[in-house]
Design brief:
4 helices; globular
């Protein structure tokens, strides 16, 4: 969980997107819901491969690929 949290914090630093503007879209991509358990815990339960699959599916959909 510490690795995931560090990755998220590093991404926040690189993008400058903070708080709800950062976490809300990620939660929607991963769960399809506005609210729920801690995002890090959700990612831990889903696992790396499933989480990456969900992000790729979103990116492919949003870019029309």
């Amino acid at each position: 969980s510490e690795i995931i949290l560090n990755l998220l914090k590093g991404t926040i630093k690189k993008t400058g997107i903070k708080g709800r503007n950062f976490y809300h879209p990620l939660r929607l991509i991963v769960t399809g819901k506005d609210q729920g358990p801690d995002l890090v815990n959700i990612i831990l339960v889903l696992g790396k491969d499933k989480t990456i699959e969900l992000f790729n599916r979103y990116l492919n959909y949003s870019t029309g690929e």
